[in-house]
Amino acid sequence: CGAERQALEPTPPATRTRLTVILTRTVWFLSEGGGAGFAVFVEVEGCVQVARLETDRRWVESLEGGPSCRDCPERFSLAAGSGLFVHQPPAPVEGPARLRFGSLSCSTLSATFLDGETPPDRLRVWSRALPSPAASASIELEFRHGPFSSSAPPHETARLLNQVQSLMAPSALSVTVTKSEDDPNLPTRLEWFEGAPAALEALVPEATGEVEVVFAGCIERVFPAVGSRTTLDGLVPRIPTFGARGGGVFLRGRECFGASTDPIPWPTEVLARRLAHELGHFLGLYHSREASGLEDRLPDTGDDTLMLPNPSLAPEAVFSPLQAERMRRHARIVAEGLPPAR
């Protein structure tokens, strides 16, 4: 979720090679619900992107909430080291489906590889049918407050939790906090890039049953090949995500530019909406409309839900019915029987 952008000088050009390796695997539509869809977990040494999803009858035009295409944004289709993809067709379908993965450079997020980079040539894939969506689900959180958290005092933590519970409850999702602790060692500046998710493993070194919520300082997306920095209000580093080291929810607590290093005194309602929004990402939701104009493929979502890029601007602090169903169906449930991300 981007807040502001500052372009830097581009890095000097290096020798680049155009090289594309297509890796193909077959999964199945057969499921408990008569072809309701499937989940696919991927492990790869490097980076790949979903290039095509195809059935015996036709191409399938959507994977999870976004298009399945070579040129779609990486958040819909990128697997850096590992990835979890969920496909839920609009109508029941039976029979095999083929997923094609194209090799990507982790540095450029494209098929253009820098000198010395080697495209991945092995892909490990596990798949399983989607279960029926749960009527209700629960989410356990662990709060870690850095020096810039405005919610560290217990009464502020309680106020924040109460508001988040109110935002998630209409979607039949209950939220609890199992632990809330101060961590003075959290860095004042957190830099992240999709092609190098392991950079956050020092902050979340192990996968647990709870969702780690890190109240951090400055958060920036840094794209080395382009030389750009984007300030983020919130971050879920793996979309979709399940039990990966370096995973969780990260919330910004200080300015990234300027002289001030004081904590930002976010109003509780603003922070609650932002946390609910990021939990939506954690459970597989995309923005209702991207800055580029690309809309979410769920038919009942629009600019009136918490999945606006800036949830503070949503006219109503709600999730749509299909967004709620997708969250209840997502990471913890569909990943049963799949190996955890490492």
- Extract low-pLDDT stretches: 2-20, 61-75
Whole-number average pLDDT? 77
Largest sheet: 5 strands, antiparallel
What distance separates the N and C termini? Answer: 25 Å
Shape: globular
Order of helices and strands: EEEEHEEEEEHEEEEEEEHHH
Percent helix: 10-25%
Protein structure class: alpha/beta
- Beta-strand percent range: 25-35%
Please compute the radius of gyration using only Cα atoms: 20 Å
Number of strands: 16
Number of helices: 5
Description:
By secondary structure, the chain is an alpha/beta fold. The chain is built from 5 helices and 16 strands. It is globular and about 55 Å long. 14% of the residues lie in helices and 31% in strands. It has helices spanning 74-77, 154-168, 268-282, 321-329, 331-334, and strands at 2-7, 16-18, 22-28, 38-55, 78-87, 96-104, 112-114, 123-129, 137-145, 173-182, 189-192, 211-215, 218-223, 228-232, 234-235, 249-251. Helix 2 (154-168) crosses helix 3. The strands form 4 sheets. Strands 3, 4, 5, 6 and 8 form a 5-stranded antiparallel sheet that branches. Strands 10-9-12-16-15 form a 5-stranded mixed sheet, covered by helices on one side.
